[in-house]
Write a structure and sequence with these properties.
The chain is an alpha+beta fold. The chain has two domains: about 5-170, Thermophilic metalloprotease (M29) (Thermophilic metalloprotease-like), CATH 3.40.1830.10; about 185-370, no CATH class. The chain contains 13 helices and 20 strands. The protein has helices at about 5-20, 35-50, 65-70, 75, 80-90, 110-115, 125-130, 145-150, 155-165, 170-190, 275-280, 310, 365-370, and strands at about 25-30, 55-60, 90-95, 135-140, 195-200, 200-205, 215, 220, 225-230, 235-240, 245-250, 250-255, 255-260, 265-270, 290-295, 315-325, 340-345, 350-355, 355-360, 365. Strands 14-13-10-6-5-18-19-20 form an eight-stranded antiparallel β-sheet, covered by helices on one side. It has a five-stranded parallel β-sheet with strand order 2-1-3-4-8, with helices on both faces. Strands 7-9-15-16-17 form a five-stranded antiparallel β-sheet, covered by helices on one side. Strand 5 (about 195-200) and strand 6 form a beta hairpin. The radius of gyration is 20 Å and the shape is globular. Residues about 120-130 have low confidence and may be disordered.
Length: about 375
């Protein structure tokens, strides 16, 4: 983007106004690389207009590679007091993913990556001192993300704008409409007990009894468009093949197949990246259990780009995450990982909730919900 596109201005205004709801006097940290400069500048401007205090936290691409290649365990797990201070001073946090090469860490020892992903140990006093209660993450279109998606940069930019509803004069209004639609699904799912997914290479059952579905309407993930819960930890039974590739720590894993018994992965394979995948499954006791089950509902995202922020939101898909649960769903699983895998149901597949057909071929089919929509 050689000059600031009007959609970038709308993007910044939506992030600051709709997603973060910045109020006068609030400190807003803005994490990014220099590649996201046009969006950083407009977000900075919008925070000022909202009466807030922008706090840019700009990182240089490639430094993480140097740390993981050269650092010892103590250096890798050390957490910067400057970064901690920025976290504690900020009222709200925006992270703009803007890597020049999303596969830059592909050659790093996965055990070192696991160390780097270990969250800082904070005592109760430090946790109370941290003011960040509202955060949002988005992705700025770089050549690296475009290449991974198999798209020209110009086409990828247009893809991002469409997925975020930024071609609309009022993107926030579009997100509120999607949120209202999703709330109907969330309300219908309340007090339900079982989910059964059936498709080619899929026959999976799990319990959602006592669990809460969360309406993700673009405020934390931008774009979003999903509703998710934490399945009962020991309830997952059956098998599933995930047909969209996934990327984590700079590695691509394809054709993941899992079999569950008693809620735990007892068989696992991958057509590509299997050694890394199996290493992550054995990272800790919670890595082999599901921490999330979700429906994708953003029909502005029409294809996968090997980026979870987008792929898990594709309308007509479901996704599941191995590892850490979101406590607000009622989930209790704990793990150092939260790794999402996506199954596309648009070309065939059914989801039953309490033996009622809820989704077929990627479309919601419960009569009272479709009539309301």
């Amino acid at each position: 983007m050689s000059m600031v596109d009007g959609r970038v201005r709308r993007w910044a205004a939506t992030l600051v106004g709709y997603c973060l709801d910045v109020q006068p006097g609030e400190v807003v940290s803005i994490g990014a690389t220099p590649l996201a400069e046009p969006l950083i500048r407009e977000v900075y401007r919008e925070v000022l207009r909202a009466g807030g205090h922008p706090l840019p936290v700009i990182t240089l691409p490639g430094l993480q590679n140097v740390l993981l290649e050269e650092g010892n365990d103590d250096q890798i797990t050390w957490h910067s007091p400057v970064a901690a201070a920025a976290t504690h001073e900020a009222d709200k946090r925006l992270n703009i993913a803007s890597s020049p090469n999303p596969l830059a860490l592909a050659g790093i020892d996965p055990h070192k990556q696991a160390l780097a992903n270990t969250p800082p140990q904070m005592n109760q006093k430090q946790r109370k001192a941290s003011k960040v209660k509202t955060w949002c993450g988005t992705l700025y279109p770089t050549a690296g993300y475009a290449q991974l998606a198999g798209m020209a940069l110009d086409d990828f930019e247009e893809f991002v704008f469409a997925a975020c509803f930024l071609n609309s004069n009022d993107p926030a209004a579009r997100w509120r409409e999607l949120g209202a639609q999703q709330q109907r699904y969330v309300d219908w799912l309340r007090d339900k007990h079982t989910v059964h997914v059936v498709a080619e290479d899929v026959d999976l059952r799990l319990s959602i009894a006592g669990r809460t579905f969360i309406n993700s309407d673009g405020k934390r993930n931008f774009p979003s468009g999903e509703f998710f819960t934490g399945p009962v930890e020991d309830s997952v039974e059956g098998h599933i093949r995930f047909d969209l590739p996934s990327s984590r720590d700079g590695r691509i894993v394809r054709d993941v197949r899992l079999r569950f018994a008693g809620g735990r992965v007892v068989e696992a394979s991958a057509g590509e990246g299997e050694a890394y995948f199996l290493t992550m499954l054995d990272l800790d006791a919670g890595a082999r259990r599901l921490g999330e089950f979700a429906f994708g509902n953003n029909f502005g995202i029409t294809r996968g780009i090997i980026n979870t922020l987008y792929d898990e939101k594709i309308g007509g898909t479901i996704h599941m995450a191995l590892g850490q649960s979101y406590p607000e769903t009622g989930g209790t699983n704990q793990s150092a990982i939260h790794w999402d895998f996506i199954r596309d149901l648009r070309q065939g597949g059914e989801v039953y909730v309490d033996d009622i057909l809820f989704m077929r071929d990627g479309k919601f089919v419960v009569p009272e919900l479709t009539a309301a929509h």
